[in-house]
Amino acid sequence: MSWFSESANSRDGARIAAMLVAVLALGCLIVVAADTHSASAQTPFGAGRSVPATGFLGWIIAKQAIFYRAFSGTIRAAKTDGSALWTLMGIAFAYGVFHAAGPGHGKAVISSYLLANDETWRRGVVLSFASALLQSLTAVLIVGIAAALLGATAKVMGDAARTIEIISYGLIILVGARLLWAKGLGFIRSVRELRGQRRAHAGDASNHGAADHGHVAEAHDHEHADHHHHDHDHEDAHHHDHDHAHDREPNALPWGHAHGPEPQELGGPGGWKRGLSAIVAVGLRPCSGAIILLVFALSQGLFWAGAISTFVMGLGTGITVAAIAIVAVGARAFLNRFASDEVSYGSVLVRAMEVGAAGLILAFGALLLTGYMASERLTAF
Amino acid sequence: MIGNRRSIQFDSRVRRLGFGVACCLLLVTSPALAHPHVWVTIKEELIYAPDGALVGVRHAWTFDDMFSAYATQGVSARTKGRFTREELQPIAQLNVESLKEDGYYTYTWIDGQKQNVVFGDPTDYWFDYNPDTSELTLHMTLPLKAPLMAKQLVVEVYDPVFFVDFGLAGDSPVTLVTAPRQCSASTTRPGGSPAFVPGFNQLFTTSEANIGMGMRFASKISVQCP
Question: Which of A164, A295, B20, B116 is most enclosed, with most CB atoms within 10 A?
Answer without folding.
Answer: A295
